[in-house]
Amino acid sequence: MTSTQSSTSTAAGLLDSAAGDIECALGFSSGRYTRAHGPFWFAVAVALTVLSWLALIPFRDTYLGVVIESGWQTNWLCILFTWWCICILLSKWQKVRVQRKALELSGIFPTRGDFVLSPGSSDGILERITQRVARPREFLLFNRVWMALSNLGNIGEVRDVGAVLDSQADNDASTIDSSYTALRALIWTIPVLGFIGTVIGLGTAIGSFTDVIAAGGAAEAAGNIRDKLSPVVGGLATAFNTTLVALVAAVGIQLFSTFVYKLEEDLLDDCAKYCTDHITSRLKLTDW
Questions:
Q1: What is the rounded distance in angstroms from the CA atom of residue 122 to the CA atom of residue 124?
Q2: Helix, strand counts (H, E) of the chain
Q3: Strand pairing partners for 209?
Q4: CA-based nearest residue to 14, from 135, 118, 120
Q5: Model-level pTM?
Q6: What's the rounded Cα separation, in Å, for the pair 9 and 206?
Q7: Is 135 left (phi over 0), alpha (psi -120 to 50) or beta?
């Protein structure tokens, strides 16, 4: 949905999954439910990495600058992937907040105690949803409700409705879990890049140390040995610094990813509880 369409729906007073979604506001198609648009956020991550490089220029002589620049071949890739993960997770966090608005929408199901949900009354519920929500199937909750209520006439027992809801809940959980595939790959790749930087640094140190040994036989070369030790120390510094950058980034992203994943699990649980309270517990499959 384009930003123009989104603003039109919002002006009409309809709950819209595109409202507040930066991907839709910029004209990109939003992923299903909480799935982020990977290529778009990669482009944003590249821009943020370039800005990070520019911001580091005045601080290259500081400890942070030395650590990052000592293994720039892999450290900047780690920073790029870290920004990419952060952008995806922030996008998913925002999408979870949008999805939760469906749970907060009141007036869909009657609140009176004598209300019974049946094939006859389900049409009214579906009509209320279409009157209050733009593209209800884009909401995890309303898609699940729609699947159950639109099939009431073809279902014979209450437990069959529960089976439909459980099946859809499993599909939703699978959809959300699969949206973390790229993130998991990136979180795995970041420390691997650190280990690659470690190998590069150790290779440099060992190669330089070979020159030191070759020059060690001549007493007059003592000053030359000190000069040749400098690349050895530099190679070891690169080895340890690249590991440090990668591990710190991986730990931070893993913690953030766990936090966002827990928010999505809570969303699934709340949707299941909503369906139990408003559908399964109030269902009657015969109209008298």
A1: 5
A2: 10, 2
A3: none
A4: 135
A5: 0.82
A6: 65
A7: left
The answer to whether residues 25 and 6 touch, using CB atoms and an 8 Å cutoff, is: yes
In the chain, domain spans: 3-282
- The 3 state secondary structure assigned to 105-169 is CCCCCCCCCCCCECHHHHHHHHHHHHHHEECHHHCHHHHHHHHHHCCHHHCCCHHHHHHHHHHHH
Report the chain's C-alpha Rg in angstroms. 28
What is the spatial distance between Cα 229 and Cα 204, in angstroms, rounded to a whole number?
11
Determine the residue type at 159: R
Token code pair at residue 213: 């040994």
Long-range pairs, 270-274, Cβ under 8 A, ≥24: 270/100, 270/103, 271/103, 271/140, 271/141, 271/144, 271/169, 271/172, 272/165, 272/169, 274/103, 274/141
Of 32, 21, 274, give the one whose Cα is nearest residue 174: 32
Return d(Cα 243, Cα 192) in angstroms, integer: 9
Which among 44, 37, 55, 34 has a CA at the least distance from the CA of 81? 44
* 117 has a pLDDT exceeding 90: no
The more confidently predicted of residues 196 and 273 is: 273
Identify which has the larger pLDDT, 159 or 147. 147
